[in-house]
Design goal:
This protein is an alpha+beta fold. It is built from seven helices and 15 strands. Helix 1 (269-287) runs antiparallel to helix 2. The relative contact order is 0.16.
């Protein structure tokens, strides 16, 4: 139940960074300011700005001049299954025991659990993805030093505001107008640049919450890139990803992109997504060089990821920050992954994270390669509602499949394709596709040179979601797919 904040209604902007607040916010989405005990609004004075927007590359205009106008179904992309048979002309193939995925009734994560056989764990990786353990490139949200136009420190203005003390140049180690580097192992506040950060992540001088390592992450391997951002409303990033590359037995490259979205209603969703992304990536890196068919390897990688998430439920006393008042239930997340191996493109997923296909030649139609495990998709698939009716319902985005100890019997979905032209695979969480849901919309936002500049393409897509409101964590991986030329006339 949401704690009551009797004074919050008097604030329209965050006291810490002046970003707009929404009714019911417990934490500022920009700087993480704790709104549960906000003082009376100041009558005068000015607070120091402590948040800054990420400067993203400008997204291309959606003029539609050279973009496809019709939707291509995934089944229309030439492909084969793991047995070498042609894929049926259906929206997507599910590799359940009987060839079709029997979907359970919609439910919320955290209800009755169901056990399932344990899967083999992955082996050590030969290339790592961006997870907390391996230290991805991080771009913190905190801004540089601000200025306070109000009274000086200790003036007692009576405004009720939290005024930042002006650092003493001698205490701060200033000499000749330049600050000395902090001692080794000491982290300075991103807001006042004077106070040290305590073990809880708050400044001992001004009390400002510091940006976390996972607030913004980027990773590029040349052949694949990914970006993850906390967004503008959430107090932490519960998404995670892993990107890597390896070689098949014949020496040809195999490129991997895994994206996971933590289920916010579950306990420790950030740990769940990190564990799933790392485990799936490690399993693929271990199995692909051994000659395992990429589609079978993806299926087993999802099982390994689920096993890793399940193991979190057995860890005692590991409630994360801000979870102490939340009902404790099993950690959970969704997963979507893509593997480019030779002429084969394989996708696998559980939940509502998605993969899109965007050809380099934009005269060809884009396609969505996955089908959501969601209430709306289930209603449409069963013929009970039209797509417009289902997605207009408030239950539309309730997921019916996820990784976690309290999930129904796990049913990993995989599909393999043989694209006849080069393109880009966009692997993303709903924090992105909520702002570019149709394949045509995704193709409009993705830069035309994404195949040659995948990191820039991922940055543009994340920036598009933030510009649209950034109401959720947003994570996207861009995986270029090249088709070997077989003659002058080949596409």
């Amino acid at each position: 139940m949401t704690p009551q904040m009797p004074q919050q209604a008097a604030w329209s902007r965050c006291p810490g960074c002046e970003e707009p607040l929404e009714s019911g916010d417990l934490f500022c989405g920009a700087c993480g300011y704790d709104l549960s005990a906000v003082p009376e609004p100041p009558r005068n004075g000015q607070t120091v700005a402590t948040g800054a927007h990420v400067h993203w590359p400008e997204a291309p205009g959606a003029d539609g001049s050279d973009l496809p106008g019709s939707l291509q179904r995934p089944g229309e992309v030439p492909g084969t299954d793991s047995g070498g048979r042609e894929l049926p002309a259906t929206p997507v193939r599910f590799d359940g025991p009987d060839g079709a995925a029997a979907r359970p009734a919609p439910r919320e994560a955290g209800t009755d659990a169901r056990s399932w056989p344990a899967a083999p764990s992955g082996a050590a990786s030969t290339a790592s993805g961006a997870t907390p353990a391996d230290g991805p490139a991080v771009a913190p949200r905190g801004s540089g030093p601000g200025s306070d136009s109000g009274p000086g420190p200790g003036s007692g203005s009576g405004s009720g505001d939290f005024e930042l003390a002006v650092p003493d140049p001698r205490a701060a180690g200033h000499s000749g107008g330049h600050s000395a580097a902090p001692p080794s192992g000491v982290k300075l506040c991103v807001a006042c640049r004077a106070g040290q950060v305590d073990h809880d992540g708050y400044c001992e001088n001004c009390g400002h919450a510091q940006p976390r390592e996972r607030d913004h992450m980027e990773r590029e391997l040349g052949v694949v890139a990914a970006v993850s951002d906390r967004g503008l409303r959430h107090h932490r990033n519960e998404d995670s990803f892993a990107v890597s590359s390896t070689a098949l037995p014949d020496g040809s490259p195999a490129v991997i992109a895994i994206v996971c979205d933590g289920v916010s209603s579950a306990t420790r969703p950030d740990d769940a997504s990190a564990a799933a992304a790392s485990s799936a990536n490690e399993h693929l890196l271990a199995s692909l060089p051994q000659g395992t068919h990429p589609q079978q390897a993806m299926h087993e990688a999802i099982l390994a990821a689920a096993c890793a998430v399940n193991s979190l439920a057995a860890e005692p006393g590991a409630a994360m920050e801000h979870d102490r008042h939340r009902h404790q239930n099993a950690p959970a997340c969704t997963l979507v992954g893509a593997v480019s191996a030779g002429e084969l493109l394989v996708v696998g997923w559980v939940g509502d994270s998605r993969a899109y296909w965007v050809p380099d030649d934009r005269s060809g139609p884009p396609a969505r390669l996955t089908e959501d495990d969601s209430w709306a998709a289930q209603m449409v698939s069963a013929g009970l509602m039209s797509e417009a009716e289902a997605y207009a319902d408030e239950r539309a985005h309730a997921i019916t499949g996820w990784l976690g100890a309290d999930a129904y019997e796990l049913e990993p979905h995989t599909a393999s394709f043989k694209p006849d032209r080069p393109g880009v695979v966009v692997v993303c969480t709903d924090g992105l596709w909520n702002y570019a849901e149709a394949p045509e919309e995704m193709a409009q936002v993705l830069p035309p040179d994404a195949a040659g500049r995948p990191l820039h393409g991922a940055q543009v897509l994340v920036g598009h979601a933030l510009d649209g409101g950034g109401h959720d964590n947003v994570t996207v991986a861009v995986l270029p797919f090249a088709v070997p030329r077989q003659g002058a006339g080949s596409a």
